[in-house]
Design brief:
Elements lengths: L1 H21 L6 H7 L2 H24 L7 H9 L9 H18 L12 H17 L5 H15 L5 H76 L5 H28 L16 H9 L4 E6 L8 H21 L4 E8 L4 E8 L15 H11 L3 E6 L5 E8 L5 H9 L22
């Protein structure tokens, strides 16, 4: 019988809780946030206990009509329920109600205070939390109002002591909060200092790396330029065709040296680091001409106005074409390379670099195998997309779509990735799908 009653009580409680959760008020975010905190439940329980004590004892200390007792007791006790979630609001309700009760409601049975003990306890607790969690600039206001209400409600011989106690509490809490804020600010400053020092160390390391790269790369490239330019004088029986080839090598090496110096200048932090405009669409013809000097057959079809493309987008297109040409000449010697750069209908630029099947064995040069992945990352950086796939005739094709403006980046990515030709970039090596072919 007892088990059956307990199960029925549990089922009834579950049903009541379910019904309460379905109420519109229970769905309010503020209500849900309040009941999500355990400390709010504690203060709600404490307020209910204070209410249960205040209501029956109120007629002992104050002369009130019976029908007003639950209302006055509620103003005395229930502000405690918000001591943690809204201490300043709860304190304001408690201090105003205490002042009104002390002025308007007469006491009985020789009660020396203007308010109940329960009301005084709730007021003191809320004052402490208003000191502790309220805005620091309002602490003097909270102290003054509470001290005034307690002074008017307390017996004449106890007023000074209560005001002194409230003042002492206010000073102690203010000092604690000031010390905590000071320690927090010191911790933030120390963190900012550590961050600045780490950034300084990174910049110094970048400068060191730039110096080392400049010493190594610039020296080797300079040697190539000098060797190519002096070959006709150092070697006998150099034909005019060979001399022209050496001159072409010197021109290409000198251009590469200038670009390397420009990139290294970005790493350097001291004043006077070399700087130059980044290459863009206007430099594609020079890039194609230099590639033709290797013997490759390259055709460029460009119908985009260079000024209509942003600097960042133009640099990405240039790097994609540059990497694709390098891959094609290395992996597909003798192949024809067709480059097409044209605007599309969605405020973007379509880039296609296609090469036919190779006619000779690939040139085996050491590399990191991250060229295609690097192109994909460059395209994504400006909101575009890129694919690199083999073709049916044994060649290779690189396609990219680059949006014109940064404001269209997010829309461009969604639209690009829905196209059927977009494929995932290989994660290991440039020629993961066709090791001996294509761009």
């Amino acid at each position: 019988m007892f088990r059956r009653m307990r199960s029925l009580a549990g089922a009834a409680g579950t049903a009541v809780v379910g019904e309460l959760r379905e109420l519109p008020a229970a769905q309010d975010p503020a209500v849900r946030h309040y009941f999500a905190s355990r400390i709010n439940w504690f203060f709600l329980f404490a307020a209910a206990v204070m209410y249960a004590v205040s209501w029956p004892t109120l007629p002992i200390t104050h002369s009130l009509p019976t029908y007003t007792l639950p209302v006055v007791a509620a103003f005395a006790a229930f502000p405690l329920a918000f001591a943690w979630s809204a201490p300043l609001m709860a304190w304001a309700v408690s201090v105003v109600s205490a002042q009104l009760i002390g002025l308007l409601v007469p006491t009985v049975n020789g009660w020396p205070w203007g308010i109940q003990v329960t009301h005084l306890i709730v007021l003191l607790v809320l004052t402490f939390f208003a000191y502790l969690r309220g805005p620091l600039r309002l602490l003097p206001v909270v102290w003054l109002c509470t001290a005034l209400v307690v002074y008017l409600s307390a017996p004449a011989d106890a007023r000074v002591g209560w005001v002194f106690g409230l003042t002492f509490l206010a000073v102690v809490v203010a000092l604690i909060r000031f010390l905590a804020a000071t320690r927090r600010q010191l911790a933030e400053r120390a963190e900012e200092k550590d961050l600045a020092e780490s950034q300084k160390a990174i910049l110094q390391e970048r400068t060191r790396i730039a110096r080392d790269l400049h010493d190594v790369v610039a020296h080797r490239m300079s040697v190539v330029v000098v060797m190519a330019q002096t070959a006709r004088y150092r070697l006998s029986d150099v034909s005019d065709e060979a001399a022209a080839e050496f001159d072409s090598i010197a021109v290409a090496a000198r251009s590469s040296l200038d670009e390397v110096r420009q990139l290294l200048g970005v790493l350097r932090t001291e004043a006077g680091a070399p700087a130059a405009p980044n290459p863009g669409l206007a430099d594609l013809s020079t890039l194609v001409m230099q590639t033709r000097l290797t013997g490759a057959e390259v055709a460029l079809s460009e119908s985009v106005t260079p000024t209509a493309v942003g600097d960042a987008q133009a640099l990405v297109i240039y790097r994609i074409v540059q990497e694709s040409l390098a891959n094609a000449t290395r992996h597909a010697p003798g192949a024809r390379i067709d480059i097409r750069i044209a605007p599309d209908d969605d405020a973007g630029v379509d880039v296609e670099i296609r090469n036919s099947a190779p006619t000779a064995a690939p040139v085996r040069l050491p590399g990191t195998g991250t060229g295609i992945r690097g192109m994909v990352e460059r395209a994504i950086a400006v909101g575009g997309a890129l694919s690199a796939t083999p073709t049916a005739d044994g060649g290779f094709v690189v396609r990219a779509r680059i949006p014109l403006a940064g404001a269209q980046i997010s829309d461009a990515v969604d639209e690009i990735t829905s196209r059927p030709w977009v494929a995932a970039a290989p994660q290991t090596g440039d020629r993961a799908t066709t090791p001996l072919r294509g761009a």
